[in-house]
Amino acid sequence: MTTESISGNQPRPVATIASLTLLIAAVAALESIIVPALPLIQRDFGVTADVGALASVALTLSTVLVTPMAGRIADVYGARPTLLAITTIVVLGGSVSALATIFPLFVLGQFLQGFGLGLLPVSFVVLRRTLSSDRLKTATGLLGTVVVAGGALGVVLAGPVAENVSRSAMYAVPTAFVLLGAIAFAVSTPRDHMSNVGGRLDWPGAAGLALGLLTLTAWLASASSNGWGAPTSMLLLLASAAVFTIWARYQSRTTEPMVDLTMMRHRSMWSAVVVGVVFGFTYGAVVYLLPQQLAVPEESGFGRGASTSAIGFVLCVGYGAAVIASVISGKLAQRVGTKAIAVAGVAFLGLSGAVGVFATTMWQIVVVLILAGTGVAAASTAVFVISADSAPADRVGVTTAIVTIARSLGSAVGTQIAAGIIASATSSGGLPQHSAFATAFGVAAIVAIVGLVVAVTMPKPASTDVQWSSSSSSKSATPRFQ
Predict the structure, then answer these.
(1) How far apart are alpha carbons 442 and 436 in whole angstroms?
(2) pLDDT tens-digit profile of 399-435?
(3) What's the CA gap between 482 and 80, in Å, rounded?
(4) Could you tell me the CATH superfamily of domain 8-193?
(5) Could you say which architecture CATH assigns to the domain 260-464?
(6) pTM across the whole model
(7) Are the C-beta atoms of 341 and 389 separated by less than 8 Å?
C-alpha cells in the first residue's frame, strides 16, 4: 500500500467524531421513518399495501447493494471523499422523498436514501485511521449508540411530524440534518493531499457480490410471500448459492479481490461474521414479535391491545437500553476485552428470547426489551471492533461491511421465520395464539445459544499489526486518515 502522509492540517479526532455523530444519527432517523409511516404513505399516494411495500423493498435493495461497495471504495480511494459522495446521494434521496408527488418518484427517493447505510463501514474506516486501538473501542460504542438513538428518534417523531405538519416535513427535517452533518464533517476533517490509499477496486468482484446479495434478498422476499419450500423460493436460493460459488472462486484467483477471502480463514474474522448473523437473527425476531404481541387484544390474556403510537413509545425502552449499553460496552471493552463483551451481548439476547417465551404482562415485555436492547448494543460494539481492529488497514471498510450485511440478513431471516410461526397458528377468531409466540421466542433463544458457543470459543482479537497471508499489499499499522 502507498505510504500515507498528511501535510498541512492534522486530523482533529474530537471534531471528526462529533460531526460523524450528527451525520449518522440523522441518517439513521431518515432511514427509519418508513417503518411507522408506511400506512400513511400508502394513503397519501393512494396505493395498496402490496404496492406500498415497494418503497421498503427499494430501501433494502439499495442498502444491500451499496454497503460492501462503499466499504471497499473507502478502503481504496479514501474515507473522506467516499463519505461525502454517499451523503450527497442520501440528501438527494431525502429531498426527492419529501417533494415527490407520484409514488414511483417516492420509490426512487427511497432507493437513493438506502445508500445511507453504506456510511457505517465508511465511518469505521474513518475511526480506524483517526484513533488508537483503545480509543477505537469507545468510539465504536458511541457510533452504535447514535445509530440506535437516531433510529428511535425517527420511529417516534415520524408520526407526530407527519400528522401535525406534513409528510414532506417528515422527510425534509432529517434530510436537513444529514446535510448539516456532512458540512460539519467536511469542515472538521482535513483533506489529504494523497489522491487514494492504494490498490484498485475489483469491479467484477463487486458486481458478483451485488448479484449474489440481490438474489439472496429476492429469496427472502419470495419465502415471505410464497413459503420457504415454494419452487420460486428454492430456485432463488439455488441461484444465490451458484452466484456466490462462482464469485468465491473468482475472488480466490484475482490479485486484488473485492473481499479477501483469506481473511475469513482467521477464526476471529469468521467468528465475528457468525455472531453478526446470530444476533441479527435473534434481535430481528424479538423486535418483530413484541409489537405483534402488544397489538393483540387484552382479552387474549397475553396481548395489550396497544395502539401504533403506544407501541412506538414502549419500543423506546429497548432503544434507551441500547443507547446506555453502547456507551458502557465501548468503555468496558478497554478493561475486559471485546470477546467478553461479545459473549455478554449474545447471552443477553438469548435471555430476551427465553423470557419472551413466558412474557404475558407489560413488565415482562419491558424486561424482554431491555435485555434485547442491551444485548444487541453490546454484541454490535464487539463484532465491529473485532472486525475493524483486526482487519488489514486497507480492508477495514469492506470487512465491516460484510459484518453489517451478515447482521442485516440474519435479521431478515429471523423476522421471516418468526412471522411464519405466528401465521401458522391462529385462533378461530383470526388472532395468533400465545403458543406461537412462545415457540418463536424459543427459536430465537436457541439460535442465540449457537452464537454464544461461537463467541465463547472466539480467540482474542489480534493486534492491528497482524500480518495476513493475502494478496494485499503490506499494510501500515497505524495509517493516517484519508
Answers:
(1) 10
(2) 777 787 788 778 878 877 887 788 777 665 667 788 8
(3) 6
(4) MFS general substrate transporter like domains (1.20.1250.20)
(5) Up-down Bundle (1.20)
(6) 0.72
(7) no
